[in-house]
Amino acid sequence: MSEPSEHAHPIVGPGVYLVILFALLVGTALTVWASFVDLGFWNPIIALAIATTKAALVLLYFMHLKYSSKLTMLAIAGCAFLFLTLISLTLAEYISRAWGNW
Amino acid sequence: MRGWKARIGIAGKKRRPVPNSQATANSGPDGGEHGENHDHPSYLRHHFHSVEQQADAANFAMWIFLATEAMFFGGLFTAYLVYRNWYFPAFVAGSHQLNVIWGTLNTVVLILSSFTMAMGVWCAETGRRRGLVLCLSLTFVLGIGFLGIKGIEYREKIEKHHFPGLQYNLSSFLDPQSDPDVFKQYHDKPLSLDMARHTEIYFSLYFAMTGMHALHMIVGIGVLGFMIFRARAGAYTSGHVTFVENFGLYWHFVDIVWIYLFALLYLISRH
Amino acid sequence: MSTNTIVSLPDQSTATLPKDNYLNREYGLLSWLLTKDHKRIAILYMVSLSFFFAIGGAMAGLIRLELLTPQSSLMSSDTYNKVFTMHGVIMIFLFLVPSVPATLGNFFIPMMIGAKDLALPRINLLSWYLYVLGGILVLYTMISGGVDTGWTFTTPLSTHYVNTNVISTCMAVFIAGFSSIFTGLNFLVTIHKMRAPGMTWFRLPLFVWAHYAASVQMVLATPVVAIAITLLMLERTVGIGIFDPTKGGDPLLFQHLFWFYSHPAVYIMILPGMGVISEVISTFSRKRVFGYKAVAFSSVAIAVFGFFVWAHHMFIMGISNYAVLVFSLLSMLVAVPSAIKVFNWSFTLYKGSITFEAPMLYAFGFLGLFTIGGMSGVFLGTAGTDIHLTETYFIVAHFHFVMVGGMLMAFLAGIHFWWPKMTGRMYPAKLSQMAAVVTFIGFNLTFFPQFILGMLGMPRRYASYPPEFQALNVLSTAGASILGIGYLLSVLYLLWSLKYGEVAGDNPWQATGLEWQCQSPPLTENFTEMPIMDHEAYDYAWLESKNRDSRKEEAPSAE
Amino acid sequence: MSHISPVLWQFLVKWMTSFPLFPPEASKIAPEMDALFFFMVLVSLIGLTIVVLLVIGFSILYNKKRHPVAVQIEGSMLLEATWTIIPLGLFLVMFVWGARIYLRVFTPPANSMNIYVVGKQWMWKAEHPGGQHEINALHVPTGRPVQLTLISQDVFHSFSIPAFRVKREAIPGRYTTVWFEATTPGTYHFFCTQYCGKDHSKMGGDVVVQTPEDYRKWLASSISGASLAQNGERLFASLSCAACHNARPDARGPNLANVYGARLKLSNGETVTADEAYLRQAILNPSQHITEGYAPIMPTYQGQISEEGIIALIEFIKSLDSGYRIQQTLNTTDLLPESEGKMPPAAPAHAAKSNASQGMVKP
Question: How far is B89 from chain D, CA to nearest CA, in Å?
Answer without folding.
Answer: 9
